[in-house]
Description:
The chain has 8 helices and 11 strands. It has 326 residues and is of the alpha+beta class. It is found in: Nucleus, Nucleolus.
Amino acid sequence: AGGGSGPVGSAAEDGAPPAPERVLFPPTFSVSEIKNKQRRHFMFLRWKQQQRKEKLAAKKKRRKEREALGDEAPPKAIPKTIENQRVYDETTVDPNDEEVAFDEATDEFAPYFNRQTVPKILITTSDRPRGRTVRFCEQLSTVIPNSHVYYRRGLALKRIIPQCIARDFTDLIVINEDRKIPNGLVLSHLPDGPTAHFRMSSVRLRKEIKRKGKEPTEHVPEVILNNFTTRLGHSVGRMFASLFPHDPQFIGRQVATFHNQRDYIFFRFHRYIFKSEKKVGIQELGPRFTLKLRSLQKGTFDSKFGEYEWIHKRREMDTSRRKFHL
């Protein structure tokens, strides 16, 4: 009792109020050890609040230090993200690689990129599609020029493909559904393949998009492909590019974007809005959806005897969150 002659004792003698006690969690604190559910939830919220306060205080401290140093302040640290910590893929394409250039000049898409063929797309569905899938196919046909929608009833794809080749179709798109919701997309390049199988999610029709623009016009849109960096990604990107005619009509101000991020391909369809000579905005037209590549197959669709170039195997390939394939 007689040893309390520190700062606390002097503050009490001067009549100053004692400093409020700061709540600190011990270093080994674990919320999961609390048995009571309500108490555990309450302590978790307090712990998160304390984390946010400490993070904000450190941020303010760093900003003040930078302001005090002025021009002598060190450069800002680059934040760590999953993208910039990506595991290097040995199949990443070098733009100056002669082998890649030769392969692309002789692959199945070479006639399109050499302007020898004009895209003509057939969009079809699984057997007896429901209303949402039907509306999605109709809206997709307004995005892809020179595309035609056909609703098949019991007709096998192996019988459709020869008819498509005979009618000079260059690509076949099949929209599959589950429980009345579109959940898959098969893209087959005709007449020699390849065929890509995608899982489809987050489908939004035009009426479900907030602040959407007016109906798209018949102008040929501009196509943007982002982050398709590996050999596999180049093949997938070339498949998407071959769906659209070569010369976009910029007067229509429409753009179709395939953005790859962490092997998820996000599709958006926008229109440019020029507010002035220096300011430009974008207005989404829809539809929108997300694709995840499941397999890439040589040749046209053949589920039994087809030869696969690449198959997504979750247990073998998804061992690291920083490993991407496209």
